[in-house]
């Protein structure tokens, strides 16, 4: 591939990324809602359950904070897929699919926008949580959470692109999102530790990629984890690469239909 061709492909990725960022910036209600809802969960649910739950690792609200960040990244990344449905309905998707560029770069540009949005929300929640009293280990550990959020977002945006490439309506996408997000959150360690889980529940918890993303964040922020950090990083990296591969394939197939 020539240098001019590489520049053209990268310019396509940047243009689609910038379009997603402008769309996010203009949607103030989305920004407020994406931060207010997780904070409501953290403050109300964390305080209520913290008064009745005792963890050997410390306060429950501290334990819950990485789970809330992971939950926010999951929602934001999957929601990134809905822009594909919007573009399909308004005809924009057809225009970019006929452009003389590999569809992989088109999918990459959409994914980059969704991942950036998820990282903005996750990082904002991490900072705000620190101001309201969540006790983190150090500022350096907080910075190391950013690449973890990136890999988590990449995996779930790949899933969102896969779903949006196969589903043609907003209603169908929203139903599928609900079907996926609630079981994914509840069968992870976002709200409770792995220890003392029932045998039947420990299986989906160990198979859930969100578990390993939350545990990696928890190790970085609180220096506690039920999973070795190396295993968590390996799982979320493999998940991100796999889902982006599947997502780009599904996006390419959708363009041929």
TrEMBL record:
Places the protein is found: Membrane
Keyword Membrane in annotation: yes
Residues spanning the membrane: 31-51, 63-86, 107-134, 146-164, 176-194, 229-251
Keyword Lipid metabolism: no
GO-annotated cellular components: ATP-binding cassette (ABC) transporter complex
Bilayer topology annotation: Multi-pass membrane protein
InterPro entries, per the entry: ABC2_TM, ABC2_TM_bact-type, ABC_2_transport, Nod_factor_ABC_transporter
Gene Ontology MF term list: ABC-type transporter activity
Domain ABC transmembrane type-2, chain residue ranges per copy: 29-254
Domain of life: Archaea
Keywords assigned by UniProt, alphabetized: Membrane, Transmembrane, Transmembrane helix
Stated name of the protein: ABC-2 type transport system permease protein
Organism: Methanolobus profundi
């Amino acid at each position: 591939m020539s240098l001019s061709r590489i520049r053209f492909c990268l310019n396509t990725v940047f243009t689609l990324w910038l379009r997603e960022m402008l769309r996010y910036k203009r949607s103030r209600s989305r920004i407020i809602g994406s931060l207010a809802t997780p904070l409501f969960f953290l403050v109300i649910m964390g305080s209520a359950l913290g008064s009745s739950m005792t963890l050997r690792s410390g306060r429950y609200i501290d334990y819950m904070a990485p789970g809330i960040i992971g939950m926010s990244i999951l929602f934001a990344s999957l929601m990134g897929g809905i822009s594909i449905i919007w573009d399909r309905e308004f005809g924009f998707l057809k225009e970019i699919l006929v452009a003389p560029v590999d569809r992989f770069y088109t999918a990459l540009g959409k994914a980059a926008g969704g991942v950036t949005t998820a990282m903005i929300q996750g990082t904002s929640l991490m900072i705000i949580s620190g101001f309201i009293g969540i006790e983190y280990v150090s500022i350096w550990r907080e910075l190391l959470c950013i690449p973890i959020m990136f890999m988590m977002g990449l995996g779930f945006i790949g899933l969102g692109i896969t779903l949006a490439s196969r589903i043609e309506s907003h209603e169908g996408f929203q139903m599928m999102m609900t079907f996926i997000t609630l079981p994914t959150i509840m069968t992870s360690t976002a709200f409770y530790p792995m220890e003392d889980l029932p045998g039947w529940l420990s299986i989906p918890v160990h198979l859930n990629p969100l578990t390993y993303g939350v545990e990696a964040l928890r190790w970085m922020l609180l220096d506690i984890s039920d999973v070795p950090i190396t295993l968590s990083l390996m799982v979320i990296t493999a998940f991100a690469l796999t889902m982006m591969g599947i997502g780009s394939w599904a996006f390419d197939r959708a363009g041929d239909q």
